[in-house]
Amino acid sequence: MFSRLNEDISSIMQRDPAARSRWEVLTCYPGLHAIVMHRWANACWRMGLKWLGRFISHISRWLTGIEIHPGAIIGRRVFIDHGFGVVIGETAEIGDDCTIYQGVTLGGTSLNKGSKRHPTLGRGVIIGAGAQVLGGFTVGEGAKVGSNAVVVKEVPAGATAIGNPARVIAKDTHPGRDDAAARMFAAYGLTPNGDDPLSKALHGLIDNAASQETQLQKIVAALKAAGIAVEEVAPSDRFDADQLNKLVE
Question: How far apart are CA 99 and CA 87, in angstroms?
Answer without folding.
Answer: 14
